[in-house]
Amino acid sequence: MTKKSFPVVTITLDKIVGGGQALGTMEDGRKLFVWGGLPGETVEVQVTKKKSNFAEGIVTNVISASSERVSPRDPNSYLSTSPWQIMDFGSEQHYKAALIEEAFELHDIVLPDPITVYTDGQEYHYRNKVEFSWYSTTDTASGGDTLDLAFFRRGSKGKIIVKECALLPDSIVHTAHAIRDALQAAHVTARQLKTLLIRYNQAGDCVWQLYVKDEDFDTAAPSLENIGSGGEIIFSNPKSPASVITKRLASYGNIVLTDTILGISFRYATEGFFQVNIPVYERALHDMKQWIDGARPTVDLYSGVGSIGLTIGGDHTTLVEINEHAVREMQRNIKELAVRATPVLAASENALDHITGDKTIIVDPPRAGLHEAVIQRLLETTPQRIIYLSCNPVTQARDVARLAEKYGVRAHQGYNFFPRTPHIEHLVILDLK
Question: pTM of the predicted model, to two decimals?
Answer without folding.
Answer: 0.92
